[in-house]
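From the pipeline queue, job 12 of 40. The input is one protein chain; the requested action is below.

Action: predict structure.
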Amino acid sequence: MFKDSWQFSRSRSKSEKFLEGAIDLHVHPGPHLFSSPRSTDPIKTAIEARDAGMRAFAIMDVFNMSVGTAWMVQQVVEGIEVYGGIILNTVFGGMNPRAVKTAMYYGSGARYVTFGAHSTYFQAYKEGRYDDDGKWILLREKYPKFVTEELDRCIRIPEGEPTPELKEILEVIAANPQVYLETGHVSNQEAFRLLELGKQYGIKKLVVSNAVVENMTDAEIEKAIGMGAWIERLLAAHTHTTPIPKTHYYVEPEYRAMDEGLQSTTHGGVAKVAEQIKKFGADHFFIGTDFGVYTLPTPVEGFREFIACLMDLGLTDEEIRKVSSINPGKLVDLND
């Protein structure tokens, strides 16, 4: 039997080899809410990532600016870069320029500003779960306090003139070219408005969050790429944890909701990610895990599994290296 190159080109050791020089810009280690236990902490993640040969990772924290945590990790773990930033969730009151300015000068200094995770109006408005009778319930309809304490404080991106708060945040990002703007879990329309504003204000690094890409058509992905945006693709959206009700973002147990506000698992999965990379070109994408929750492997192992899946789906070595190392390296100015 003749050896087909695809049949014999994949192995666990090769997927581990791809970790050398890799960068994961979306990691959620502890600390976190008691209701959402973590698989690891930032120091353990840094040690595991360094020992695997990774160059860097970025800590995402939905309750704190992660620049302080990144700074502390860098004091005790040598041989790897650790980045932090700020996610404009309701714990900061939503659109808060003071918090963004502070993040620039605190700890290791912000490398990203994200316009909300579940704390966007678009995301929180549709969040829900199935009740004991199998009926789909929306948090905003079942719990009036959810509206006043969460939904009313959530991020919304205006179509017209930016609010004074949004304007100030855009100006701060533009004045700090080391920082990339990430859309967060906004609607497609809001994401495109952020890309327009980013270009208008001279922001050089623009990222369309995985949560937005999941809802995009091919034409919209092509449009975002044409506007100079990077396309983020994460593994966590395509795992067994997606349809499990949890409280990633709320201290109230009654606010348990399915991840991404979905009523079921996402469509397409990792195969869809590979298809998009092939169709639009690896030059425009970067991958990450979004791992940290205790029901999933550690982020480093998750990154290896993502790479292994992309190997199985026929991405070339060059394409994998681009989306796992070269492109995220450009976002954090880490390439030679």
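Job complete. The chain has a mean pLDDT of 95.
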